User: What shape does this take?
Amino acid sequence: MFLKRCSTTSTDGCGNPKPCGNPHFHDISGLFDDSQKPYYVDEWHVSESGNRRIAAAMVDDAIELIERLRAAAAEPVRILPTTDNSERAGFSGRNRTR
Assistant: This one.
């Protein structure tokens, strides 16, 4: 299985998933282990039912991300004070040649 072969880089020597430095990483390499149904149409591509199963495994995380982004968008925008460096860069509101 393709996912099993590729997952060897994301597991420790005992087959336990490693986070790969990303807290949002989820190892789904065992997703099809409990079924004899052929989910792969070739070495790389999964069938429609395989895609549905992958989507079902991802949906909770996708919904959580959408909710966090929606909440962040609803927060008022804070404008931080900035330093105007345009004069130091040789620009001003006037039409000036350098």
Remarks:
- Residues 2-74 form one domain.
- The chain has one domain: 2-74.
